[in-house]
Amino acid sequence: MAPGPQPPPPPAQDQRPPPETSATPHLPGTPDETLIETWKPPGEAERPLYTVGTLVNDRTQYAEMVASFRAHGFDKTSCEFIPAYNPVSAYSALNGLLAAARGHHVILCHQDVRLLVDVRSDLDRCLAQLEARHPDWAIAGNAGGAAPGRLAMRISDPHGENRRIGDLPARVMSLDENFLIVKSAARVGFSRDLDGFHLYGADICLAADMMGYGAYVIDFHLRHLSPGRKDASFARAEAAFRSKWAHALRPRWMQTTCTLLRLGAAPHDRWLGRHLERPYRRLLTHTVPAWPKGMSGR
To answer: Which residues contact 260 (CB under 8 A, 6 or more apart)?
Structure first.
């Protein structure tokens, strides 16, 4: 008997490897090719209270830092940790960490900080008090510059043990980079046009100030193992920082569709600007079409 029709052969199995599912996305928006790894609490439906983001070039140091936080109350239900390994620049890498963070507060700290006596509930209390007294806060830290020649701090480091300077919380114009806390809701970040690993604490404080927020040193004590250093890269970063912010804060004319404004820090500059604005405002009324009746120009 002739054999009947044979069933079609099974479809060939796809031998290609499955798509990559590792939680190591590229940091967005910059040439920095750093990879990040994001740990998310299993089964956690709500955002964690804290994200701890760290630039890492020594995995042993970083593991010891994470262990220190874990031992002081930053557990898996309240905190996620995001390392950025071997970054090209702190500015771009930290912007990537801020974008990836899910926490209500984002701690950006060095890999060589260690918690001492203060625990997570102490930080909760410090931030709650800061929110109650200074709801304009966007960034907090443990050391910063309050005025020319005057510092505020709460830290132990190679420069001194158990140092407390100032009436805390103290408003400051800059914060040291070893430990920064960013309020996620403020949506502040670091300059796109600066790079390197210096003065980014001052940079984000200036950016926050431009948006109407404040920076504060709080009474949360930890240890920073490094004394910091000033080398040739610091001198270059200082020059770039000075150039960028001098340009950003320069006096200027601001022309909008409905008015001309002179923006300047000196009172005489503003007075002169108000007088020079008048002829341009008259010119504007002749060159810009009037709004139709019944419509507001606001």
So the answer is: 253, 254, 277, 280, 281, 284
pLDDT of residue 262: 86
Short-list 82, 154, 100, CA closest to 123: 154
Q: Which domains does the chain have, with CATH numbers?
A: 35-248 (3.90.550.10), 252-287 (no CATH)
Tell me how far apart the alpha carbons of residues 55 and 278 are, in angstroms, rounded to a whole number: 52
Q: What is the percent of the chain with per-residue pLDDT over 90, rounded to a whole number?
A: 68
> Is residue 294 over pLDDT 70?
no
Question: Per-residue confidence at 152, pLDDT binned at 50, 70, 90?
Answer: very high
Burial call 62-76: b when 16+ CB within 10 Å, e when fewer: beebbebbeebbbee
Nearest to 51 by CA among 63, 37, 61, 64: 37
Pairing of strands 137-141, 214-217: parallel
Strand residue runs (E) in the chain: 35-36, 50-56, 79-85, 105-109, 113-115, 137-141, 143-147, 150-157, 160-165, 170-172, 174-175, 179-183, 214-217, 222-224, 252-255, 260-263
Residue 155 has pLDDT above 70, yes or no: yes
